[in-house]
Amino acid sequence: MTERLPPLTALRAFDAAARHMSFQRAAAELNVTPAALSFQIKSLEEHFGAPLFKRLNRAVELTEAGRILAPGAAQGFNALTAAWRAARRSVESSALTVTAGPAFIAKWLAPRLSAFAHTHPDIELRVAASLRIMDLTADEVDVAIRFGYGPDDGLFSQSLGREWMTPVMRPELACRYTTPHALLDAPLIHNSADDFLNPACDWPVWFKAVGIDAKPRLSSSFSQPDHALDAALSGAGVVLGRRSFVVRYLGDGRLVAPFKVALGTDAKFRFLCRQGQEDRHDIAAFRHWIMAEMAQTAGCVDDMTILPIGDLV
Predict the structure, then answer these.
(1) In this model, does residue 92 exceed pLDDT 60?
(2) Which of 228, 217, 162 is nearest to 195 (CA)?
(3) pLDDT for 275-296, tens place per residue?
(4) Is 2 helix (H, G, I), strand (E, B) or coil?
(5) At what angle do helices 23-30 and 8-20 cross, to 10 degrees?
């Protein structure tokens, strides 16, 4: 039995047959005839010096040696495919593919894209809005921006800053609801996308933070934070707005945050890419740019008191 690796085509045939447990289906996947695939596996077994499959009447089974080889063969081809795709993207295109949730793209990224394009005209940014947790390798995505706690196993992960939530509203509503207690009579907007936060970061917790023990009545509820924020921008009510989403509107005066008490959360927006890719020219350029943009608004409300949620529930 030799230690020298067999031909890649023979290993590929074995991998397909082991996954399908069928020579015929494996042959169809590889676009070869069943006879050609059977020949490749036979040559692999001769190279190995022992059978890797048990040939039954109308089926095949892996031998003990085959069961040991199959996971490593699958992992090896997956790693090779990922490396090939990454290498191909590095020479075929100057495009940088970024995925993020629709709300982050609409309320944070899209309004700032012209600034990135101006400073990095050599990088074509392709933005994919999705709530699905994409596989950065299989989905051929370079960067993901995700909100939550992680973990981000196997990925380079960098926090985009602390998040907090505070009531925001149109200025004319702030003139009507001038105290936290008065907010109990205001049309309160709920963003159910944040219901996963643990501890909770919602209206009952905020009222408790300002010393009001009451169950607030909600006027409306939205499944996406950008839709809830749009409702507040239209004057439909008051929403607990995330820092990253509301700073732009606080800065231009379309919204105000009059009560200066915010709920801090350990959930964060994180910049993610494949481990070892964080210093690739285009990824590093986008990473440094987004961190600089976030830093500009880190102290957007200097007199805000940020309370840890865990102390309130």
Answers:
(1) no
(2) 228
(3) 999 999 999 999 999 999 998 8
(4) coil
(5) 130
Same domain, 135 and 278: yes
Q: Within 10 Å of residue 74's Cβ, how many Cβ atoms? A: 15
CB atoms within 10 A of CB 96: 22
In a domain, 1, yes or no: no
Answer yes or no: is 71 within a domain.
yes
Specify the pLDDT at position 133. Answer: 86
Give the pTM.
Answer: 0.70
Collapse the DSSP code of 109 into the 3-class scheme (helix H, G, I; strand E, B; otherwise coil) and give the result. helix
- Whether 313 has a pLDDT exceeding 60, the answer reads no
Report the DSSP pairing between strands 155-159 and 188-191. unpaired
Strand order in the sheet with 261-265: 218-222, 188-191, 238-242, 163-168, 261-265, 305-308
Q: Are residues 144 and 292 in the same domain?
A: yes
- Domain span holding position 221: 164-263+299-311
Q: Does residue 178 sit in the same domain as residue 32?
A: no
CATH code for the domain in which residue 307 is found: 3.40.190.10
Residue 301 pLDDT level (bands cut at 50, 70, 90): low
C-alpha distances (whole Å) from 147 to each of 29, 166, 236, 287 are 38, 17, 26, 16
In this structure, the answer to whether residues 16 and 102 fall within a common structural domain is: no
The answer on 286 and 209 residing in a single domain is no
For 209-240, write each residue's pLDDT tens digit: 999 998 899 999 999 999 999 999 999 999 99
Q: Which amino acid is at 13?
A: A
